[in-house]
Write the structure tokens for this entry.
Amino acid sequence: MNQKIIIEPVTRVEGHGKVTIHLDEEGNVARTRLHIVEFRGFERFVQGRPYWEMPVLVQRLCGICPVSHHLAAAKALDVIVGAGTGDGLTPTGEKMRRLMHYGQIFQSHTLHFFHLASPDLLFGIDADPAIRNIIGVALKHKDLAVQGVMMRKFGQEIIKATAGKKIHGTGAIPGGINKHLSPEERDMFLHGPDPLNIDKMIEWSVAAVDFFKSYHKKNKDLIDNFSVFPSNHLSLVRKDGALDLYHGVLRAVDANGKKILNDVDYQDYLKYIDEEVRSWSYMKFPYLKHLGKENGWYTVGPLARLNTCDFIPTPLAQKEFEEFKAYTNGKPNNMSMHMHWARLIEVLHAAEMMKELLNDPDLLEGELVVKGKKQYEGIGLIEAPRGTLFHHYRINENDQVVMANLIVSTTNNNQPMNNAVNVVAKKMMTGKKEITEGMKNAVEVAIRAYDPCLSCATHALGKMPLALYLYDKDENLIDEFISQ
Amino acid sequence: MSKPVIATTSLAGCFGCHMSILDIDEKILDLIELVEFNKSPIDDIKHFTKQCDIGLIEGGCCNSENIHVLREFREHCKILVSVGECAIMGGLPAFRNGIPVKECLREAYLLSPSVQANHEYIIPNDEDIPMILDKVYPCHEIVKIDYFLPGCPPRAELIWEALVALIKNRPMDLPYEVIKFD
Ligand code: SF4
């Protein structure tokens, strides 16, 4: 009997998502799809707006990492106001933005780890959904929950001090930044009462990495074998190959580590990247042109970044990076669940970066903005918490936007998430007559490793609802399974 | 006495309002003591597990599914609150009101500079993805809304004050500065 199973989780960035699974006559998984079911129309409706509105407008597409959109748009506009392509800002402009960005990485990654991933790890994938959430964590492991809340708070406070507001700030403007950090703010972050100071944050970040490593030791099978498939990996890297989340050149490696995009200038992204449109999802499928639609798709995000970069330029994170690399003998890591490990190493890196920046006098004084010769087109790229984010604008003589193109992180991960769903569904559901809570959550866990914005927020307040529907070969609903 | 039950959802919102709820920081642990969460934050599931006291709505309605979820919330929540500019007025997504949907789809899937290989001119359209509405509707145009919390997002303190007032059934103390748009 042909069957169709529908899973409706809620995945973020472009809005809701759901999964359909088609079984063949023998009950084997024939086809799986992750559908993104929301559409905003941003590319069209910003046309005609003045360009300088972009950094404050576009971030309202995503309130989970608004800073990433804010900065990617600002970077594209730097090009338009003639301030160069990322390294042309004043030291104050660039460093304030970097501090804002690392604050964002820190808060978003900790939110993901503590609020979203930790419930699965602490309670198990097939635990009762009633406790498998952050509220369960808060009740059972209060210390951990408090740590998560305070780390996120620290990141949010950094954002407020640099962007003016915790969510949807206004700090970055074309060509620079609109404020300095005050000495009082700096002192608070550096030496504030425990736990809200940077040294405590570094200490807790180290502890979080250790927590994952010891969990990994005890749960090798889950972490190493749960969802594994060969993938290309893409990210920005600094010119010398270092991990850099704010600016750099585009690099991609294949599943074996061979460079397939060799440190190119992202202003030329259209030469290398195109997107496929499929009728069943509002989210497009990006791929590297020279490899084609079939083979050119790639993964972005923490795992991809640690796979593409050569080293991490802060000491504690570099030490962890070496251990991470050694685990796969220096080869790219293609195990989806290792995304959590990579993410926590980045948390530590972000904490170290914040400390370095906070000690930099350029934040307190110096020119804020540069302007040059106006251009009519600009592209801004940034490594958002979830991966590479592309913003591209064209304007006319009246300073109005005439073209906007966005490729957001979760879109870049569209194919890998689809693959992860496929791998896990095949493993869990092949030949099974019944769908259990554990199987259903397994599919969620696979998607969740990629941290699509929505699932992150969903879990933050409790539960990620999921519905599965079983259809017979004539598409009649024969069974229904709904989690509460 | 049993705890008040709260449900929340994000329709055509950006999740910023939900994040602002989290920005009450340590108080989130108090909130967990104070209330019970039911469906949250998004639910396109057909059944609530119980009647709820307070429903918080983020975002307006931009597709058929949003309308369905909003009506579900009205049915199952005694008090319904529009949280943030999107729920109250449509917000940023409502920028598309006045532009035919077709044009928005064409721009994203046919005219974008990075869909050069879309030679078959595919625009997503499938039984598994919902219909997009002609425009984005604020929530109160679809169902009755009892309270409105302004801001984009409303500040964490405002959300906290409002929740506590509703839970404890006492008047809200909202100074002028927190009741503002930005
Ligand atoms: S009101 Fe603002 S923060 Fe809330 S959902 Fe809308 S855009 Fe996001």
Q: What stands out?
A: Confidence is low (pLDDT under 50) at residues 9-15, 454-472, 478-484 of chain A.
